[in-house]
Amino acid sequence: MKMYLSYLRTLLGSKKGQGMVEYGLIISLIAVACIAALLILGPTIADLFTEVSETITGEPTP
Question: Is 11 helix (H, G, I), strand (E, B) or coil?
Fold first, then answer.
């Protein structure tokens, strides 16, 4: 039992994986920001590409 409690204390006191968790949180926040930006700006960007395509080809797309 003492060995088990000692292992738990060591495990809880260890900060070995703290850096990886922080990097994971940062990456997930960046991903959420990118997805939000694409959802907000997506239709505007699609319209812009459509206008450029129409200008290049000279005919409107349906």
Answer: helix
pTM value surpassing 0.70: no
Q: Cite the DSSP H helix spans in 1-62.
A: 2-13, 18-57
**Ramachandran class of 46: left when φ > 0, alpha when ψ lies in -120 to 50, beta otherwise:** alpha
Positive or negative, the CA dihedral 34, 39, 40, 41 is positive
Residue that the structure tokens 């290049």 belong to: 56
Tokens representing residue 36 in the block: 């939000």
Is residue 14's pLDDT more than 80?
A: no
Q: Which two tokens stand for residue 38?
A: 């694409």
Q: Which two tokens stand for residue 59?
A: 């005919």
Q: How far apart are CA 59 and CA 54, in angstroms?
A: 5
